[in-house]
Design goal:
CATH class of the largest domain: Alpha Beta
Order of helices and strands: EHEHEHEEHEEEHEHHHHEEHEEEEH
Number of strands: 15
Shape: globular
Distance between the termini: 45 Å
CATH architecture of the largest domain: Alpha-Beta Complex
Number of domains: 2
Helix content: 25-40%
Radius of gyration: 21 Å
CATH superfamily of the largest domain: Spore Coat Polysaccharide Biosynthesis Protein SpsA, Chain A
Structural class: alpha/beta
CATH topology of the largest domain: Spore Coat Polysaccharide Biosynthesis Protein SpsA, Chain A
């Protein structure tokens, strides 16, 4: 088995989870669904495959102290700080430079910090197979999720679902990627679902470190040049300054758009392990347990004649009378009330507060 490192991407703000998720304490550092914070659960589910000394976390300066505190099993020097968020391609490339210095032949598992996975045994099986294929083939590997509904909030991956004789891993449930698709409208999402050969793009990736750095050099030469400058400073007292300087030059771009969509051959494994990106309060309601009236409550609440409502009360008590289909979220200094099905628009509230410089609520 190859030497395997994990990279946990933990730099996001989670603005759709306002007011619980804030700039100081974002979604990945909160308990949203299960016991333990989302980043703690992410590290825990891979700990039997990848030892903590080989887990790297990419975050920002503001969140580093909380990450170090929550992940006491991960060495503090494995927490990499980005001076500014530049999307996933620079994040992944930066982590790859650190891993290359430790082992240029290593396999790199890239995971978001804020996903929910119910069937952890199946997840680890898929991840182990992905690691083996990545090491043997030298190709880019991703995990796609079997879609259960015509979701418009996810990107999609179209697979070659018949054995064309050019895929040596087809019998193991590994498919070639035909194309990547951006987040669709409702009509297109229905068409994707009906076709049977589209998967949700999970944002999880597995590859050899030299493979991804080679692909970045091919598709994003400007980013590659800045990463190489940073790489030359890793292991010296110049590394933080090199990252600061490099990130002023780096253009923000996602790994999907910048690399995956341009790569000539990508493999995907189908994930059926109870996955959710927990991307909104509506998703929390969908995956949470509910009482006989369809209500899901976290914290203290008094509900009278209330149905199909999500309540997160924090340290407060929430009372709701004769209402239906609402999301009610209480935090220290703000309360969110919105209709179920509309929580993606919470980001608009966050943008408004930022424009108005009402930063005490962010």
């Amino acid at each position: 088995m190859p030497n395997v490192y994990a990279v946990i991407m933990a730099g996001g703000v989670g603005s759709r989870f306002w007011p619980r998720s804030t700039e100081k304490t974002p979604k990945q550092l909160l308990e949203i669904v299960n016991r333990g914070t989302m980043i703690q659960n992410t590290v825990e589910r891979i700990s039997s495959l990848i030892e903590p000394s080989k887990i790297l976390v990419v975050t920002n300066k503001l969140h580093k102290p909380a990450v170090v505190k929550q992940l006491s099993q991960v060495p503090a020097e494995n927490i990499i700080v980005e001076p500014i968020g530049r999307n996933t391609a620079p994040c992944i490339g930066l982590a790859a430079m650190f891993i290359r210095r430790m082992d240029p032949d290593a396999v790199m598992v890239v995971l978001p910090a804020d996903h929910l996975i119910n069937d952890q045994e199946e997840f680890r099986r898929i991840l182990s197979l992905s690691i083996w294929v990545a090491y043997e083939s030298g190709k880019l590997i991703t995990i796609g999720i079997h879609p259960s509904r015509p979701e418009t909030g996810y990107g999609y991956i179209q697979v070659v679902d018949e054995d064309d004789g050019t895929n040596p891993y087809f019998d193991r449930g590994v498919f070639k990627v035909k194309t990547f698709a951006e987040k669709p409208n409702r009509e297109t999402a229905h068409r994707f679902l009906a076709s049977g050969d589209f998967l949700w793009n999970s944002g999880m990736f597995i590859w050899k470190v030299d493979t991804i750095l080679r692909e970045i050099a091919s598709s994003l030469p400007g980013l590659s040049a800045e990463l190489e400058k940073i790489g030359g400073a890793i292991g010296t007292d110049r590394v933080n300054q090199a990252i600061e300087t490099g990130y002023r030059m780096i253009r923000g771009i996602s790994i999907d758009y910048g690399v995956m969509e341009k790569a000539h051959e990508v493999y995907v494994l189908r994930g059926e392990f109870g996955w959710s990106d927990v991307g909104s309060w509506d998703e929390v309601y969908r995956i949470s347990g509910k009482d006989a009236d369809g209500n899901s409550v976290s914290g203290k609440a008094v509900l009278h004649g209330t149905k199909n409502t999500l309540v997160h009360s924090g340290d407060k008590i929430v009372a709701a009378v004769d209402v239906e289909d609402l999301i009610i979220i209480a935090a220290d200094n703000a309360i969110l009330v919105c209709r179920r099905g509309e929580s993606q628009d919470v980001k608009e509230i966050v943008d408004y507060l930022r424009r108005k410089q009402m930063t005490e609520y962010l």
